[in-house]
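Expect chain and fold; see below:
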Amino acid sequence: MAEAYIVDAVRTPVGKRGGSLASMHSADLGAHVLKALVERTGIDAGAVDDVVMGCCDTIGSQAGDVARTAWLVAGLPDEVPGVTIDRQCGSSQQAVHFAAQGVMSGTQDLVVAGGLQNMSAIPISSAMLVAQQYGFSTPFAESPGWVARYGDQEVSQFRSAQMIAEKWDISREEMEEFALSSHERALRAIDEGRFDREIVPVGDFTTDEGPRRGTSLEKMAGLQPLEEGGRITAAVASQISDASSAMLIASEQAVKDHGLTPRARIHHLSVRGDDPVWMLTGPIRATRHALDKAGMSVDDIDLFECNEAFASVVLAWSRELDVPLEKVNVNGGGIALGHPIGATGTRLMTTLLNELERTGGRYGLQTMCEGGGQANVTIIERL
């Protein structure tokens, strides 16, 4: 099978809710990284076969195939198409998969994969809330087929995070220690300039806004749980954020034709599902499946990115697979850096790529929990 290569990857700084990117139109947010990617790689933009971008809640400024709109807003050629995809939190990781699959199939040579999300302007689940205003059904409880299969029970990420904490006996204190580590790791990465190569400033906005220098276990302990008697608080959950990210995926022929120097190779890609009520356990099954398919073990992987939707998700995944936490999210994760849903997949992969290069590691594995109990896994090999 043909190879798919990562040529380059960029992202905006991640803005916190109501922060530096809050008023930026979603198409302009996406356009910013697309334009920067074309400029950095020096490619003929008209040679791009497709632009695949992840985005959730595609209403308002994110409606109307925002991937296509973002490309045009960037001033790039009309003849290049774009498509917007939604695999919930894994949308832009899936964008990388579709881009790589197009290249590996031999039907495409240059594909841009990325994602964008302005959660300040369009809060999570806005599309569902708007639909309810017009009398449309919710995705779960009002479906007779769903109720027949899963019962009339609450389906939410918050309930799932709490259920995971209880099943794996993960205490609130353990999650808060993990959350504090996420902030400390992110701040260290910022202070050491580890993100400098991957971030494309937006005007004067150059640094991720989420990491908190003044946070502490004492402050976290004072927060109220999201449900009475529960273990999950805002401190151990990912932050609502705004950002965009993009990478260029190329075939071997495109690398030769355009004089490109690839930075990594897509070694493996897959996606699996798990119980949709538990929802956030998907990375466990998906990672096992990916390692088995790739003929690899945890020991073969130098660095891991497991999205910090909630601390309990990463801790349960690490425990089940015996993944050492010192190799996971070494520059912080969603708890500190934020989780701009549609953009997070390629944001994580961009950071993973740069950290493999910084440390000299060979293989990096990325996974993330997704709505519906799904999880993508990508293994990249640094070149």
About this structure: The first helix runs from residue 26 to 41.
